[in-house]
Specification:
EC 2.7.2.3; 6-stranded parallel sheet; kinase activity; binds 3-phosphoglyceric acid; 400 residues; Phosphoglycerate_kinase_N; 17 strands; alpha/beta; Phosphoglycerate_kinase_CS
Length: 400
């Protein structure tokens, strides 16, 4: 983006593909980290006299307008952060978007509505995506790719649009890629990876790859129960991906052969019921050993012994990558595991990277100072796929 700014952008319509996919409760943004992360790029462009057109997806609407997924709250928050009026187009490439963009003065910013309200954005059909990209291209003179959280998606605004306009990477993408490079080349050891979140299937690729790179892998969250089951433990009604058990077993064997330490929970908090995340009514969980989960109960967080164990396994790390919460942190009775891992990262002198929409939001929602971490990534799936060594369409499109 520095080259673009040096060339001059006065009066140019600059399309910024951001990732404003923020967590919402109704129309209230519960974590604005992703908006703040792209703010400097937008500010620089506006200060340089560009007419800035910000675009993003939010959630997974079904290719048609759906008020529950409107970007209006994100546009309003962006305006508050920029301390200026941000225009909002109520469609993506229709009359509203055209009028709003045409009405921009130099240095002004607009947000267009959720890109996924148009089926062309996510289509698997190249022609359909291309047709939408053609329409988006009419709104701008230059493309700035800065939605790091979406670079793993082969979507019209991420992959096809840059081919139709002069394009550069924004500052956020440059920072994110710089950090992830540090985790893939010449890593300082011990390199400890903490993986959580609901689904083991989302993490298989990265585990496969990290078995060649990491010294220690700590597992928590819903995905831990598939590992515990693979080890022959009963997991009651906990989250379980039975079809993944053979792969998980193979990984455990490979870890052993390679001397990679694989650490699983030794105790968990269980309950017969999933907690009410709206009322946050007390859930009264009990703590049981990880090999003694009652048949009618589900594990919802790592237990106190596991918290201590994981903190000790993180204490001597030189590099840490953490993706995925350790439990249902949105409920106070199941937040301690995620808090303990976050605290261990804060206390550690290691270079710490928190990757992922959920874990990044978790550390902020739980009240941690984001500056206490080496880097909090705005990309969940994107940072995992980068670490898997995959080619990311949104980065490839910016490279040529
Ligand atoms: C994310 O939240 O990881 C990004 O915004 C991408 O969203 P998606 O998984 O719906 O494509």
């Amino acid at each position: 983006i520095d080259e673009l700014l040096a060339e001059g952008v006065v009066g140019k319509r600059v399309f910024v593909r951001a990732d404003l996919n923020v967590p919402l409760e109704g129309t209230t943004i519960t974590d604005d980290g992703r908006i703040r992360a792209v703010q400097p790029t937008i500010e620089k462009l506006a200060a340089a006299g560009a007419r800035v057109v910000v675009a993003s997806h939010l959630g997974r609407p079904k290719g048609a307008p759906d008020p529950a997924f409107s970007l209006a709250p994100a546009a309003a928050r962006l305006g508050e952060l920029l301390k200026t009026d941000v225009a909002f187009a109520t469609d993506t490439v229709g009359e509203s978007a055209k009028a709003v963009v045409a009405g921009l003065a130099d240095g002004q910013v607009a947000v267009i509505e959720n890109l996924r309200f148009n089926a062309g954005e996510t289509s698997k059909d190249d022609a359909e995506r291309g047709a939408f990209a053609d329409q988006l291209a009419e709104l701008a003179d230059v493309y700035v790719g800065d939605g790091f959280g979406a670079v793993h998606r082969k979507h019209a605004s991420v992959f096809d649009l840059p081919a139709r306009l002069p394009h550069v990477a924004g500052g956020l993408i440059a920072t994110e890629v710089g950090v992830l490079k540090k985790l893939t080349e010449d890593v300082d050891r011990p390199y400890v990876v903490v993986l959580g979140g609901a689904k083991v299937s989302d993490k298989l690729g990265v585990i496969d790859h990290l078995l060649e790179k990491a010294d220690r892998i700590l597992v928590g969250g819903g995905m831990a129960y598939t590992f515990l089951k693979a080890q022959g433990h009963e997991v009651g009604i906990s989250l379980l991906q039975k079809d993944q058990i053979p792969t998980v077993l193979e990984y455990l064997e490979r870890a052993k052969a390679k001397g990679v330490e694989f650490v699983l929970p030794v105790d968990v908090l269980v309950s017969a019921e999933f907690p009410d995340l709206k009322t946050k009514a007390p859930a009264n969980p009990t703590t049981v050993a990880a090999d003694a989960i009652p048949a009618d109960q589900e594990g919802l967080d790592i237990g106190p012994e596991t918290r201590k164990l994981y903190a000790s396994k993180l204490a001597d790390a030189a590099t840490v990558f953490w993706n995925g919460p350790m439990g249902v942190f949105e409920h106070p009775d199941y937040a301690e595991g995620t808090k303990a891992v976050a605290q261990a990262l804060v206390d550690s002198p290691a270079f710490t990277v928190v990757g992922g929409g959920d874990s990044a939001a978790a550390v902020r929602i739980l009240g941690f100072d984001e500056n206490a971490f080496g880097h909090i990534s705005t990309g969940g799936g994107a940072s995992l796929e980068y670490l898997e060594g995959k080619t990311l369409p949104g980065l490839a499109a910016l490279e040529d």
